[in-house]
Predict the structure.
Amino acid sequence: MNQAKPVDKEYHFEGRVIISETDLKGKITYANRKFCEIAGYTKDELIGQPHSIIRHPDMPKAAFQNLWDTIQHGKTWTGAVKNLRKDGRYYWVDTTITPNLDDSGATIGYSAARRTLNDLAKERAIEKYKKMLQNETKES
């Protein structure tokens, strides 16, 4: 799937919550209309793709390691995420990811709900992720 290179232009959105669901490996199994609209993909382009299709390169690996460690232990993860649209613009979201459980309590996938991130939370996230990226660069 061809994705544009990131451009330093933010995509702003308002309104409803963005919802997606993935399987245990992070492949998208559901995307609501708002998610498709904001990410710039059709539902057909998203279903079956790894959720990392919208991962912005400014996001540190450690942030996603923490996310996966949390949800794979059956807990809810909440945090700010910078995502990449198909057209190369970015957007920030306040994200909550929860495990989906079957009747026996086994995790069968994950649900993510996102909404617009306020400016103060965005500034804090930018600073936090800059430090994490600097640490990753030092360790390389």
Observations:
- The chain has a mean pLDDT of 93.
